Amino acid sequence: MSLSGVCVTAVESRPGGTSQALEALGEGVLGTSSSRGQRPFGARLKAFVALTKPRIIELLLITTVPVMFLAQQGVPDLKLVLLTCLGGFLSAGGANALNMYIDRDIDALMERTSQRPLVTGMVSPRECLAFGIALAVVSTLLFGLAVNWLSAWLSLGALLFYVVVYTMILKRRTSQNIVWGGIAGCLPVLIGWSSVTNSMSWAPVILFLVMFFWTPPHYWPLSMKVRDDYARVGVPMLPVVASNKVVARQIVIYSWVMVAVSLLLTPLGYTGWFYTVVALGAGGFWLWEAHGLQNRAKAEVTGGKLKEMRLFHWSITYVSILFVAVAVDPFLR
Fold first, then answer.
1. Core-most of 94, 175, 303, 327, by most CB within 10 Å?
2. Which of 315, 295, 313 has its CA nearest to residue 305?
3. How far is CA 292 from CA 18, 213, 277, 297, in A?
């Protein structure tokens, strides 16, 4: 039985209203393609950068580089760090561009995504598809030829998992979408380790699990905030198909497991006192926020008073703090 305890919900692979949205989107692209030269180069360049979702990539790199310090038990080769970051950026950027290509129909209907480049017509679907595939190929070759092939296959696996398993299969069909789809976002931890050692160990596996259990309670509060957007396009995120009480309870369960897993590194000998103190402090505050959200949900608080975004914002800070501790700990042992 899965932790979320919610039955799988099937939805249309292309939600109602999508055809009209695609017509409008197509008209926008056709209307601008003939005058593409009139669009400023700077705006076009900015649009292609936006396809990569750079803010999300920042978070992925935060979980990659510190693991390289842990694997090296010190400062890794800086050229290797640069190549790994570049390969990771290109791979994640390609995955995000392909995600936007596939989701362009629902992006046109959701307020949160209404200004994405494909929706506005700044980039055509064909350009987006070619751009995403090119980044996937270049990133895989860069990893394989300049880092190692284990990292290359992990990187390609993360991209394919995000595009095919999450975006194409899970996202529109089950409330478990972000639980299992989040695996793609956990793989950079393994890539960081393999780029240094060209092998695997229990340390990156533990951190992989930390990120796996982190992803649902990180994303569900945001999904609670934009529930109406997802409901409008038929995407069964957990907050769409379950009450705030159920969602908050699942957030608490995943949070406790996440914190417990994060503490396994020390007894297994991979980290020392510094990481343990940071993990306990940051994890304790996370649990405080998670239980606070659950208490407000139990009291049937709604709207702005639910304060669900407090946990979402803290979740990003938590990952940053925890992985900085991963990088610093080897120097204090």
1. 94
2. 295
3. 38, 19, 23, 9
Q: What does the alpha-carbon distance between residue 140 and residue 152 come to, in Å, rounded to a whole number?
A: 5
157-171 pLDDT tens trace? 999 999 999 999 999
- Region of residue 74 (left: phi > 0; alpha: psi -120 to 50; beta: else): left
Among 309, 231, 291, 307, which Cα is nearest to 255's?
Answer: 291
Q: 208: Cβ–Cβ under 8 A, 6 or more apart, which residues?
A: 186, 187, 189, 190
Here the tokens at position 102 are 């596939």
Q: Kindly calculate the radius of gyration of the chain based on its CA atoms and give it in whole angstroms.
A: 21
Place of tokens 């989701």: 103
> If you count them, how many residues does the chain have?
333
Residue 233 CA to residue 92 CA, distance in Å, equals 25
Angstrom distance (rounded) from CA 128 to CA 118 = 8
DSSP 226: T
Distance in angstroms (rounded) separating the CA atoms of residues 300 and 320: 32
